[in-house]
Design a protein that fits this description.
The protein is mainly beta and 375 residues long. It contains one helix and 24 strands. The protein is flat and about 90 Å long.
Length: 375
Amino acid sequence: MRLRRGLIAATSGTFLVAACGVDTSTLAVMSDAGTTTPAFTDDAATVPEDAASRLRCIATECPEGRADCPDTSGYVAHCGTHINDDPNNCGACGHVCYIPPAFLNIVPKCEAAKCTRRCTPGFGDCNLIDEDGCETPLLGNDPANCGGCGIACTAPNVCEGGQCNAPSQGSGSSGGPPPPTCEQLCGSAPATAPPRHMVYECSPPPTCWTLACEGSPFSASQWADCNGDLTDGCEVDLKHDRQNCAQCGRVCAAGLPCLATGVCGCPAGTSECGDACIDLLHDPDNCGSCGLRCAPPYDTKTAHTQRVCDEGRCKRACEPGWASCDGDLANGCETDLQTSGANCGACGRSCDVDAGQPCVDGVCLMKECDAGATR
């Protein structure tokens, strides 16, 4: 019996593989859950022809949407180019999607192997005239195109930053007189200084001016009157007081701080850095100690590497899909595991390159065998 290099065996229950175009004994697919490899049978045996069992052979042609195109350095990875969505190889190698300079705020796009265009985020082609590109800013104050082409703000609303909002007091945007302000209805705020960490707030008459604590859940501090005595103002910062954490009377356990997030202390495996709980063993911005930031790769020799924090020490690691198969991170992660025929999905995992088998998305490409190829 002869088996050709590159044939594989399936590993789940009913899996299989056979050689293509050579004489072999028949491989029987075992459906027993405890058997994971094919078993040899005599020639009278047949392979089940169910949907879960099929013979797989080495593929040499690129699947639909892939092609052999050189990259910017001239290197060609077999079936390594996505011609369905690559604007530099759209539908075919070297077919570049081009946008004339006069077309403003437009970027090229390859979609379904055809060149198309899309507007730069924040702009729209609202007049539907190609020659002037995407001429309309959508995140400005255009009441006729507020956030999108044709989105008009209904009066008295106005467009502010791409959103239709009610006009601010005194703007007069509705065309009529502006509504009276609280100060006009109630007069000026009291001249007496408010108690500590308190401010005057104006409400519609008859309430008018009232006292309120400074801060909010969204500010750096949130003050509260926890003792019920306004003579000393709002004496407690709910974001930093262990005896009143996030609310009056909520006490943090011994030794645990009150964080600005309203949490007492940090969970196991994390440490307090400012007002956040940080994993100092794995956070590249706080590696080993608060504020110790791992430096990013800074030169072209370390291409496709990224900074990582490994057990509190700054290191470099490969970006997803890339590897340093020569074992030398000093020259970067040079191997594309998605397309390398010699390192397909992992360093040293080789496809049958001599037969022309490509590596596609980190897997050596296979296909269904031709009928009769198992005899």
